[in-house]
Design the sequence.
């Protein structure tokens, strides 16, 4: 899936959150969005994941605007997108079942019934639970294959986030949308997830990632997009964005300088 935002804007009531954003993500590419809190990064991800419809402009997937289709046809596009949020959200069941759920909810109801009957028959014949190969493969990618039968409630925060990533990946999505997935993780869990993200790219998945970690953006990105106050300031390879940005605002941000509205600052004094 090649996804593109074309002059996309989004606002609520009288508040404009994103303004005229154009950004594409191709298969086998990691595009990272950086910017201060409140810049509109999460809103941009929600547009890309088809959670929200732009109030102006368009979001296109392989040249098609999913919002011009019927609800069922749009759902088919959405099923091709895997999403991982900042906080892991797991069900009170085993690790394997948490990952497997990510696959099942993307299937049609006839497929789900067939899967259920197949699992039920296999369990009756073997008298023991079975684990889907794709589920085990996704868990192996995040270093948790041997934890497939653990209760999700026994996991650490970093392990739970790795299971969330495995759940998104097990469905074999064309596009992964990641909203600061490593923000609360220790270095080890961060490194494991970063490697899993790079492996997803190697498998030709597109990845759209929002992060506050500048070193992470520099390490794993093919392109970096700097977002400020709902405006896409510039996009480019990480070596240019971090070493030779074209816009003064980008330079100030990556150098750690504060970015603010001078009128708002004066009003607060």
Sequence:
């Amino acid at each position: 899936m090649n996804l593109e935002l074309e002059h996309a804007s989004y606002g609520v009531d009288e508040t404009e959150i994103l303004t005229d954003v154009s950004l594409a993500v191709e298969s086998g590419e990691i595009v990272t969005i950086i910017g201060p809190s409140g810049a509109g990064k999460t809103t941009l991800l929600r547009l890309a994941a088809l959670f929200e419809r732009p109030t102006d402009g368009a979001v296109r997937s392989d040249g098609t605007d999913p919002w011009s289709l019927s609800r069922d046809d749009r759902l088919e596009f959405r099923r091709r997108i895997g999403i991982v949020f900042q906080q892991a959200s797991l069900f009170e069941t085993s690790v394997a079942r948490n990952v497997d759920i990510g696959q099942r909810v993307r299937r049609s109801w006839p497929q789900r019934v067939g899967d259920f009957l197949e699992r039920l028959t296999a369990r009756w014949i073997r008298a023991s639970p079975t684990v889907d190969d794709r589920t085990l493969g996704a868990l192996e990618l995040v270093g948790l294959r041997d934890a497939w039968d653990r209760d999700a409630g026994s996991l650490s925060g970093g392990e739970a986030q790795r299971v969330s990533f495995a759940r998104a990946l097990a469905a074999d999505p064309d596009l992964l949308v990641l909203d600061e997935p490593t923000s609360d993780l220790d270095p080890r869990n961060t490194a494991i997830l970063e490697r899993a993200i790079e492996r997803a790219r190697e498998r030709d998945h597109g990845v759209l990632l929002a992060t506050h970690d500048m070193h992470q953006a520099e390490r794993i990105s093919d392109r970096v997009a700097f977002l400020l106050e709902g405006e896409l300031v510039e996009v480019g390879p990480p070596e240019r964005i971090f070493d030779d940005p074209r816009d003064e605002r980008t330079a100030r941000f990556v150098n750690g300088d504060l970015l603010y509205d001078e009128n708002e600052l004066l009003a607060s004094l």
